[in-house]
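yo

u said u wanted the structure for the complex thing, so here. seqs first:
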Amino acid sequence: MTILFKKYQAWLWVAAFLLVTAASFAIGFDPGKTVFTNFRVSLIEMISFVPFIFIVVGLFDVWLPKEQVQKHIGHESGVKGIALVVLLAMLQAGPLYGAFPVAYVLWKKGISVRNLFIYLGAFSSMKIPMLGIEIGYLGIQFTLVRTLITLPLFIGIGFIMERYLKGKHFEVYEVAPAKEPKKQPPGGIKQPAS
Amino acid sequence: MSNNAIIFISVALILSALSFAMDRQKTIAGFKRGWQMFSRMLLPFLNILIIVSVVLYLISPDDIQHYLGAGSGLLGFAIAAVVGSITLIPAFISYPIAAGLLQQGASYAVVGTFMTTLMMVGVVTLPLEIKYLGRQAAVIRNVLNFFAAIAIGLLIGVIL
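structre next:
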């Protein structure tokens, strides 16, 4: 029962909304109707293009696997290294905190401090799936202008961070995933380190 | 808006056809990947659309114009920068909000600042970032990004 509840808990909000909407139409509660109209317009807007972006993103993912790009980011500095980390970041998806574990992996593979922060910058503001949706909602002009202004700035931040952290024993640490209590064997027996 | 939809649908169809001609298996795998990612964001997306619909009903266009509009000056800027830095809204679902703000009369500079701080500065996730990068680097990164975001917002306002 609780498991069932947990599984559908996320949908409760949607269900409650639909319920209130249905009630609003039944009793003629105008604010409820207006809110639903707002919702319907934005839902149609979303459905009309967002799924297609994900088709493109999915195809990108299979034809251009991350590992392929990752292999070529060694210690190269210069424009090529910058271009590669930006490209690598652009092919990702998800929020910025999802980039930190990847940053750790890249750090272990020998990425430079500058490229690491350029990666974080590109990850935060230039991911392709995000750009697609941004174009859909805010237009190609806004997206293009924002991207072209942002790119040199986060590259600049990469250079600043490199200078600032020089000789300061900068390190990217490994952080264990937050919740893994289920994987602990019962009785407090410690698993051998893998 | 509908023009954008037509462009996206055409691009998706053309790329799918190309991909299918080159490798059937890979194309199907790609569709599955895409569906996976889409289904993962669908629920948060629906929820935010509901919230936006409710908020748009509660907050009048006049209010938004007053606090974030062209005449809001420094205050609108400050609100956008602070709210964007603190809140943790996935970029995906912040776009409908940004588009709504623009429609209601917010200026490009303010919306640009909001979007950019949202993306590049993370006050809520700072503790996590400190664990990975160390206190010094994480704090400096966020401070630099905060000022960069304001500069970006201003420049967007000047250009658009």
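Chain A touches chain B through 76 residues (CB under 8 Å). Chain A has a mean pLDDT of 80.
cya
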